[in-house]
Amino acid sequence: MSGNSSERRDTRIRDQQQQQQQQPAAAAAAAAEFALLQRNYERLKDLLEADAAAAAHSSHCRWQQQQRQQQQQQQQQQYRYHGTAYREQWWYQEQQHQRWRWRQWEQQQQQQQQHWRHQQANNWRRWEEEYWRQQQQRQQQQQQQQQQRQGLGISFASAARGLGIAFGLSVAFGLTAPSRSKRSSSSSSSSSRDALQQQLLLQRELQQQELQQQQRMRKQRMLSESRRQQLQRHMKLPVDDPLNSAARSSSSSKSRSSSSSSSSSKHLHHGDAGDLGSSLAAEVAAAAVAAELLEDPCCSAAGSSNSSSSNSSSSSSSSNYNAPRDPRAWRDQLQQQQQQQQQQQQQQLRRLSTSRSSRAR
């Protein structure tokens, strides 16, 4: 009995040990089986979802195809039963749209034409104002030149008379007092030379001023003519060519300036060539020559003033002939010109009176 009990104990212990050894292996196997089952479940779920999505997409596509087919069928039916009416309605709508576009285009064209006409009217007014301003400036400059030339002629004549009187007095004083004749002759010769030099300097300054004024006038004329030609071409008006008259006037002014410069050079040569300090006879001859030479530029100045006045009258007449004639504007312009001439004459008289009074002092 004791032997059987011991055997039983041994078997029990062995069974317990085997069970203890098999428990972790069984747990690991169970965990692996559970993980495999979970993976299979997830795969099956994904497959089912994909099948459901494919079925839904296919059903949606079929529904869309059915809708399109129905729309096409309806359109075909409408075209069959209502084709003529639909065409007429479409044509009517297209005509209305075309008419609306045509009206818009006409309105734009009218607005553009009105704007262009307004611009042209403004440009024409500006050009007319500039034209009248330039005409007034030209007339004022011509009047100033004439007044300067007249003043030069008067000054030359008065200087010649004064020199003649001075030379006569010097000759008389030399005859009465022969001992002082040399001193008086030297002083008269120096005074005559100084007067000639001053007159020549004045002539050169006036020539330079005239040249500058002519250049300014040429530029102004060119600008005004270019603007006028552009406006006339734009307005389709006949284009005039007053440049020939400007060229002629410039050539005449150049010839006058060259003649005056040559005469001034001759005056210098004659004035320097005379040997005034040699004797009384030489002084008298030099005085006569100087008086003659001083009288000549007066004539030339008078002739040039006459020619310039004739040129100014011709240019003013031609400009007035080419200018747009408005009786009221013409009358106002003539009144303004007369007033300006009177004012300039008064200023000249005042200057002459002041110059004479200063010389007398």
UniProtKB/TrEMBL annotation:
Chain intervals with Basic and acidic residues compositional bias: 1-15
Biased composition (Low complexity): 16-28, 184-197, 245-265, 304-320, 333-361
Annotated region (Disordered), positions in chain: 1-28, 178-197, 210-275, 298-361
Name assigned to this protein: Uncharacterized protein
Taxonomic lineage from the root: Eukaryota, Sar, Alveolata, Apicomplexa, Conoidasida
